Each structure stands twice: as structure tokens, then as C-alpha cells.
């Protein structure tokens, strides 16, 4: 029973941290989209030099552990004369990592729609812009939803690493409470439960969205007619 | 940066050795755990299957860092005190096992039911069919996902730093807190991870080319 | 002769890398004519069609649609609206219903109102016998049905001519008939058509002229019956009878 009391007492603090975790997730994903989309366009439609530069960026962001990136930002930015709050440093680090992964998702989605769809659109007299907007994008978005849901859940979980540079998010709030209560297991399990609810909501929400806009033949079993 | 490496390279190399050791142990043991979980989910009875599904969902739905804390800081309250490296390895195995179980499940289910029927038709028992016919095919198909998981694990093993397990990250932190060159030390570490991962990606691509069966 | 050619092709050349697939091809098409191009695979037949609407611009040579030089025009999208294209792999937009596939060109390119576009699209679907499938997505249609939607989509744009790029090659044999029947009706209604196909029965009975190509050149062209019975080149005879053996006279 005293465990339940403990959880009850800790909950307001943990929820405070949960809000920060959600904010971290939101801003990191946004940075991921804002940078990832242009990177994907560059990878699909860019020239060789641009593709090469983007490939290097993606290789870097996918190879250096997020923890190392966060520490580098935390210790490196002040050296460049940039004193920014740890929250922002965390968002930049997580966002830059996610951009590389999101870029790959969008690129894969655009490419899996296939050249024959573009050809058919052009054959009707559509401009390339219209073909992308009305034909390629609606299909690519649907294909991208499941991997984007997955990436969102990864980003959500990765925000726990912001703890290491001192962002007071969910895990750090848990740490604080453990320091006063000395009951680590109960608090960690509660923290884990909150993360679990959040990731379930992210996946559930996006799969609801996916079902709502579901079109037969597009998605996992789709992607046919790529012969061109 | 180069100076730091040349001055302290035994330290970095030792850390790197531990990182790779932890990654390899975790990934391979994760495969064993993942296989058991996948088999339990597909071929187990209703209760087992349900239990495994919930276990996988919980592990995949919570951060590795929290799992690590539960094992390292949570368990001592119940009399289980683990060395940091061991705690890290155990939490990585559990985490990786849950992810690998999902890849494997997809792979096993993509192999047609006829394969098992064919195995039964030549007199094999169900388990013989699963072990000798289904699994060898499923494991082969899962190689790209497995190598991906391995690369992930190299990176995420850096989390062991937060509990002080002396892999690459921790060695770096200890060094930096002695010479106060945090940025330079972490830069060296970033480059080491980058090189190691580029090398593994290259090796795995070669491997995938070799083992692909038409 | 005063008749103006609807489509005129002069000295077309095209290479893919070091592989020269078209080595100087010229022919023309009058309004209301149906011409069929036949020849072995890899001999550049489909490339000609792709060159015509510049989906793949030709290396050399000129193509005219009436007075417009397609190969030089800056308004290629306007030319493409006037030339229908039917793809081997159907080219239906996977995220749109049969009706949506036909409407999208009308509303987004021709700027028709949704209502007018829907009406016209339904008419065209009816014409290919698929009115009741208007709400089906491509993945819910058979190959033959997909191709008929593809033809209806091309028709709805009210083109001056339609190019058919092996329209039945991706179909199971039992489904080719329904597509060939639609094409035959179009030809009888006076649509101008340029068809690349292996269907000898269709070529023989529908084409006004048969063009036999091999190795990037036109070997022989003329009345289909004449090419079948008294070809000038021995090679033409060999090829045509080989194809007839392979694909039969069937379908149309």
C-alpha cells in the first residue's frame, strides 16, 4: 500500500517531467521533418554533388551515438560562443539524428511510388510539380506513415538521453524523486509505465490515421508497377 | 584531437574493446532470446503467446535507459547487486531480444506453411520441422535486420556510460574529467564510433552479398 | 496530296548508353489511321512512343504533331494533353479510384469543374464497359480492367491520337481479348492510333498499315495483308509467322 502512496506522491512531479518529454519529442520530430524532407528531395531529385553531401550527413548522423552527439553539443556549443539552454541542445541533437532517419523514410517512400507513376502523370500533360503534388505525394505520405510512427516512438524514447545533459524530463524527475524516497524500483517502473503509455499512444494515433486514409493496394502490400 | 588520441590511445582502445565485446555478447544472446520469444509467440499456446506479446510490447515501448536503470539501480533493493558491465549486458540482451523477436516473427511467418507441412510429410515431428526446416530459412532472411540491430547496439551500448560500465564512453568521460578537455575527448570518441560503424556496415554488406540465397 | 499528316516522324535516332536502339526512323500518321509497329524486343518500338511525347527525348530527329514541332516546343505539356498514352503496365494512379484516375487529368490539367469531369469520366468508363467499377481502386481491378481504365483515361482527355505501348503484354492471355475489343471499337470509331503490339490477329485485321522494325530500322511497311502474304523481305515473313505461332491470331 505504501508503494501506491509513493506513486501518488511522485505522480505530479513525474507528470511535470512527462510534459517536458512530450515537448522534447515534439520539437525534435519537427526539426527532423523540417530538415529531413529537403534532404529526401535532395537525395531523389538532386545532382550528384548534393546527393554526396547529403549521404555524408546521413552517414555521420546515423553513426555517432546520440549520447555522444548530445555531449558534443553540450560541451561544444559554448566553445563556439553559443550558450544555449540544455533543452535546446537536446532538441538539436535528437532532431539532427532524426532528420537523417526521416530523410531515408521519405526518400524510400517517394522512390517506392515508382517512376511509372510519374511517367503516367506526365503523359496526361501534368507539369512535374503537379505530378509530384497530386500523384506522387499522396501515395508517398501513405507509405511513409508506418515508418514515421516507428521513428516517432524511437525519438520519444531517445528523449530520455536528454537526462544525461541535465534536461529535467521524465527520467530526471524520477531520479529526483528517488533521491528523496530511496525506492528506485517503484519509481522507475512508474516512469517506464508512463513511457509505455506515450509510445502506445504515438503508435495507436498514427495507425488510426493510417486506417482512416487507407487505400487498397497502397502500403505494405502495395508498391507494384515499378518497372520503368 | 589527434594529440589526445596518440597520448591516451590504450585507454580508448581498451574502451572500444569493451564496447565491441558488450555489443557482440548482447546481439548474439539477443538472437537466442529473440528466437525463443518468436517461437513462443507463433507456436506457443494461447497463454505463452499472449505473455510473450505483452513482454515484447513493454520492452519495445520503454526507453533502454530506463530498462538499464531498473536492472542496475532497481534490483539491488531486492538483493540483486550486479556489476555495471553485467547489468548493461543483461539489459541489452533483453532489449535486443525483444526487437529481434519481432524481426524473426515476421521472417518465420513469411515462410510458407507448406514448408512445415512438407517437413511433417517426410516424418519429422513439429519441433524437428521448426528447428531443421523453418528456422534455418528464417534466420537467413533476418540477416539484414540483424546487422542493422548490431549497428544500433554499438551505438546504444554507449548508454552503459550512465551506470559507469567502463566501455568507450565511460573511459572517455573519466579521461575528460581528469584533463577537462571534454569537447576534444568526445570528438575523438565520435570519430572512433564513426570509423567502427563504417567498417561494420561495409563488412555486413559483403556478408549479405555472400549469404543471399536466390 | 493536300492531306496534312497528323503525326510526322523524321529520321529519329536514340541511344541508351552505347546501345543505339533507333538508327533513323521516319514515318507518318494521318487522321483516323491505325498503324501497328511490330518487331523483335529491344528494337526501339517503345522508344519511338516515348520519344513522341518526350517522356524520353530523342537524341536526334524531328517529330511533328500537325504544325507543332514536338521535339522543339517549349509547351510539351500542351502537346501531351493532345496525345493519349496507354502503358504496358497500365500506369494507373494507385491512390485514386477508376473514376479518380480519369478525372485527375481533367480537373488538374484541363481545369474542368469536378462535376463536368465526373460526368465525362463516367461516360468514358461506360465506353470501355466499366461503369460499375468507377469506385474501385486499381488494386481491386483485374489486369484487363486496369488497362481499359487506362484507355478510358487517355480517351477522356479527348486526344488527337493515342499511343499504345504493348497494351496487352502484361495481361494473362484470357484477358487480352477485352482490351483488344475496346481498341478495335476505337479504331472503327475513327480514332487515330499508333500501336506497338505482338498481337498479330489485331494487327492483321485492324491496322491500316503495318510497320516491321528490326535493329533500329524500319525493314518494311505497308498493308498488313500484303506483309503477311507477300512480304518483300524474307525476314519480315519469318518474324510475322514466328509471332503468329507464338501468340496466335486470337484476341480480336
UniProtKB/TrEMBL annotation, chain A:
<keyword id="KW-1133">Transmembrane helix</keyword>
<dbReference type="Pfam" id="PF00528">
    <property type="entry name" value="BPD_transp_1"/>
</dbReference>
<feature type="transmembrane region" description="Helical">
    <location>
        <begin position="60"/>
        <end position="77"/>
    </location>
</feature>
<dbReference type="GO" id="GO:0006865">
    <property type="term" value="P:amino acid transport"/>
</dbReference>
<keyword id="KW-0029">Amino-acid transport</keyword>
<feature type="domain" description="ABC transmembrane type-1">
    <location>
        <begin position="18"/>
        <end position="206"/>
    </location>
</feature>
<feature type="transmembrane region" description="Helical">
    <location>
        <begin position="185"/>
        <end position="209"/>
    </location>
</feature>
<dbReference type="InterPro" id="IPR035906">
    <property type="entry name" value="MetI-like_sf"/>
</dbReference>
<dbReference type="InterPro" id="IPR043429">
    <property type="entry name" value="ArtM/GltK/GlnP/TcyL/YhdX-like"/>
</dbReference>
<comment type="similarity">
    <text>Belongs to the binding-protein-dependent transport system permease family.</text>
</comment>
<dbReference type="GO" id="GO:0022857">
    <property type="term" value="F:transmembrane transporter activity"/>
</dbReference>
<dbReference type="GO" id="GO:0043190">
    <property type="term" value="C:ATP-binding cassette (ABC) transporter complex"/>
</dbReference>
<keyword id="KW-0812">Transmembrane</keyword>
<keyword id="KW-0813">Transport</keyword>
<keyword id="KW-0472">Membrane</keyword>
Automatic annotation (TrEMBL), chain B:
<dbReference type="GO" id="GO:0043190">
    <property type="term" value="C:ATP-binding cassette (ABC) transporter complex"/>
</dbReference>
<keyword id="KW-1003">Cell membrane</keyword>
<comment type="similarity">
    <text>Belongs to the binding-protein-dependent transport system permease family. HisMQ subfamily.</text>
</comment>
<feature type="transmembrane region" description="Helical">
    <location>
        <begin position="12"/>
        <end position="39"/>
    </location>
</feature>
<feature type="transmembrane region" description="Helical">
    <location>
        <begin position="51"/>
        <end position="73"/>
    </location>
</feature>
<keyword id="KW-1133">Transmembrane helix</keyword>
<keyword id="KW-0812">Transmembrane</keyword>
<feature type="domain" description="ABC transmembrane type-1">
    <location>
        <begin position="16"/>
        <end position="204"/>
    </location>
</feature>
<keyword id="KW-0813">Transport</keyword>
<protein>
    <submittedName>
        <fullName>Amino acid ABC transporter membrane protein 2, PAAT family (TC 3.A.1.3.-)</fullName>
    </submittedName>
</protein>
<dbReference type="InterPro" id="IPR000515">
    <property type="entry name" value="MetI-like"/>
</dbReference>
<dbReference type="InterPro" id="IPR010065">
    <property type="entry name" value="AA_ABC_transptr_permease_3TM"/>
</dbReference>
<dbReference type="InterPro" id="IPR035906">
    <property type="entry name" value="MetI-like_sf"/>
</dbReference>
<feature type="transmembrane region" description="Helical">
    <location>
        <begin position="183"/>
        <end position="204"/>
    </location>
</feature>
<dbReference type="InterPro" id="IPR043429">
    <property type="entry name" value="ArtM/GltK/GlnP/TcyL/YhdX-like"/>
</dbReference>
From TrEMBL, chain C:
<dbReference type="InterPro" id="IPR050086">
    <property type="entry name" value="MetN_ABC_transporter-like"/>
</dbReference>
<keyword id="KW-0547">Nucleotide-binding</keyword>
<keyword id="KW-0029">Amino-acid transport</keyword>
<dbReference type="InterPro" id="IPR003439">
    <property type="entry name" value="ABC_transporter-like_ATP-bd"/>
</dbReference>
<dbReference type="GO" id="GO:0005524">
    <property type="term" value="F:ATP binding"/>
</dbReference>
<comment type="similarity">
    <text>Belongs to the ABC transporter superfamily.</text>
</comment>
<dbReference type="InterPro" id="IPR027417">
    <property type="entry name" value="P-loop_NTPase"/>
</dbReference>
<keyword id="KW-0813">Transport</keyword>
<dbReference type="GO" id="GO:0015424">
    <property type="term" value="F:ABC-type amino acid transporter activity"/>
</dbReference>
<feature type="domain" description="ABC transporter">
    <location>
        <begin position="7"/>
        <end position="240"/>
    </location>
</feature>
<keyword id="KW-0067">ATP-binding</keyword>
<keyword id="KW-0472">Membrane</keyword>
<dbReference type="InterPro" id="IPR030679">
    <property type="entry name" value="ABC_ATPase_HisP-typ"/>
</dbReference>
<keyword id="KW-1003">Cell membrane</keyword>
<protein>
    <submittedName>
        <fullName>Amino acid ABC transporter ATP-binding protein, PAAT family (TC 3.A.1.3.-)</fullName>
    </submittedName>
</protein>
